[in-house]
Amino acid sequence: MKQRVLASLLMLLSVGASAAQGGFEAGESAPPQSKQDAGYKGSEDTGQTPISRIRDFRQGGYVTLEGYIVKKLKDESYEFRDNTGTITLDAKADAFKGKTYKADDKIRVSGKVYGRGDTTHLNVTRIDEP
To answer: What is the DSSP string of 37-83?
Structure first.
């Protein structure tokens, strides 16, 4: 009897943990742009692109950026900043993979570029830690 109760309790706790949505938690401030430094970690960095260079990318071009989510704009829109500028991210909850990031957490986002110039935004497919 005790084993069944314990098993039921563990199952309920694990379901609650897996239901976490993740996302962005406001209230913290990102480091100043001058303090951002991606560093060199090896060949995985070759696919990274600064925001300043993606303003004229072709529509649907896939890019990877490193930086900080500065604030939430709308339901699934966020302002993202690296050391070269800012861009709007369109990121659904599943892109966060259940993790919650604060404004001072450096993240890596990957997705497709849409728009031109100041209207450029990134449709995010993946968010993780660098």
So the answer is: -----SGGGGGB--HHHHTTPPTT-EEEEEEEEEEE-SSSEEEEEET
d(CA 30, CA 4): 47
Q: How far apart are CA 24 and CA 78, in angstroms?
A: 9
8 A C-beta contact, residue 58 and residue 44: no
**Tokens coding 3:** 């084993």
Provide the 3-class DSSP secondary structure of residue 128. strand
Six token digits for residue 57: 């990318």
pTM higher than 0.85? no
Is residue 110 a contact partner of residue 62, using CB atoms and an 8 Å limit? Answer: yes
- Integer Cα distance of 38 and 108 in angstroms: 10
pLDDT of residue 43: 40
Kindly compute the dihedral angle of the four CA atoms of residues 120, 124, 127, 130, in this order, to the nearest 10 degrees. Answer: -40
| pLDDT of 101 | 93
